[in-house]
Amino acid sequence: MKKTLRSILLAVIMLMGSAFAQTEEGGFAGTMKNLGISAGKAFVQPVVSGFGNNMNGGWFHKAPATKIFGIDLEVGLVGMGTFTTEENKTFNLQADFKFSGGPVGSNSEAEKLAANVQNYNLLSSAQKQDVIDAIAAQSFNVSMSGPTIVGTKADYLKIVVPTQTLNVNGNTMTINGTTQSITAVTGVMDGAATIPLAAPQFSIGTIYGTQATFRYLPEVEIDKDLGKFKYFGFGIQHNLGMWFPIPVVDLGASFFTQKLEVGTLMTAKTSSFGLNASKQFGFAFLNVTPYAGFMFESSTMTFGYDFPTYTDPSNPANNKTEHIAFELEGENTTRLTIGLSIRLLVININADYNIGKQNSATAGVFFAF
User: Fold this and answer.
1) % of residues, the chain, pLDDT over 90
2) Whole-Å CA distances, 91 to 49, 51, 52, 153
3) For the chain, domain boundaries
4) Region 211-226: what's the mean pLDDT?
């Protein structure tokens, strides 16, 4: 039983961290290291909204009982999925971008751009290095287009650099207009139709119509460089029928908050509050419960990573990086939830659909006592 539970928890952790835990070239962490701030924000925005939407879903499937004191326990697993659109899978923007440098022959981004400098091939090796260093030292206003994190792996980042001048040791040189492709930046989730998430969930009640709900996963190290995966959430529901009569349905007020961390790369925080109504048909251990809710919600993700500014394959000790950090907000601010819960003895199954800026679906399976 212990091994089975551990396997389930590890599977959940892998599902929750799948979009972030890839550190190899083409994975999320590797991709972020090849992006500047503007492109990085555009690249991750769909998953910021999707993960925030998911984290705020699946918290309830009924209002708490109107009891001064009662035993109502549930433990199980919630799965969530936010639906992506074609609009989510690509981005296009005009922004400043820094090309990473390196020694002559390292095939760095700056060296690729330097090849478009007039008469570059006639320069000495030392002069070529000066051009590469001058390019790596400044930002260029460019057009960028490519896949977001939910885009396809066949797509990659394209940077259009207009013709412009470059100052190299007091000399003015012309960079001819060019399009540079950065093949290391591709869609991590390969055109996924949904952004998935899952979490174990435990609820306990009831005291004066109040129920507490928790989500938790034990810390697991993803990668020595990236750090640990951490997740904790807490929520509370209260049946307003404890204070005044409410006809036909049980009406609950609720608040939920949680935090998810993926090592040093990403931290996500969400919160939601609102009302949910439910109506039970049947008996205590055999019933059907339609439910609905309206929630106000917010979500933020903070990213931090080291952007490579100089790469020397022959001597990694010469490598240089610049730390980049930024915060983004999820697009969902409200949601309407409509769902159905079925109780069969000690098993409770529920599913719902959520309508907001991004639509999503959640489902849960619980042991109920």
Assistant:
1) 53
2) 15, 19, 20, 14
3) 2-84+193-368, 88-186
4) 81
> Residue 209's pLDDT is what?
95
- Amino acid letter for position 44: V
Mapping DSSP to helix (H, G, I), strand (E, B) and coil, where does residue 314 land? Answer: coil
CA dihedral sign, ordered 81, 84, 90, 94: negative
Per-residue 3-state assignment (H helix, E strand, C coil) for the chain: CHHHHHHHHHHHHHHHHCCCCCCCCCCHHHHHCCCCHHHHHHHHHHHHHHHHHHHCCCCCCCCCCCCCEEEEEEEEEEEEEEECCHHHHEEEEEEEEECCECCCCCCCHHHHHHCCECCHHHCCHHHHHHHHHHHHCCEEEEEEEEECCCCCCCCEEEEEECCEEEEECCEEEEECCEEEEEEEEECCCCCCCEEEEEEEEEEEEEECCEEEEEEEEEEEEEECCCEEEEEEEEEEEEEHHHCCCCCCCEEEEEEEEEEEEECCCEEEEEEEEEEEEECCEEECCEEEEEEEEEEEEEEEEEEEEEEEEECCCCCHHHCEEEEEEEEEECCCCEEEEEEEEEEECCEEEEEEEEECCCCEEEEEEEEEC
Asked if 142 and 116 count as a contact pair (C-beta separation under 8 A), the reply is: no
Q: Which alpha helices (DSSP H) does the chain contain, by range?
A: 2-17, 28-32, 37-55, 109-114, 125-136
- On average, the pLDDT of the chain sits at 87
- Contact (Cβ atoms closer than 8 angstroms) between residue 61 and residue 341: yes
Tokens of 327: 């915060």
Reference 193, options 151, 157, 154; nearest CA is 151
Mean pLDDT over residues 310-339, rounded? 90
CB contact at 8 A, 145 and 91: yes
Backbone angles phi, psi at 37, to 5 degrees: -65, -50
Q: Which residues pair with 201 in a beta bridge?
A: 76, 215
Q: Report pLDDT for 195.
A: 87
Q: How many other C-beta atoms lie within 10 A of the C-beta of residue 111?
A: 23
Nearest-angstrom CA–CA distance, 16 and 245: 41
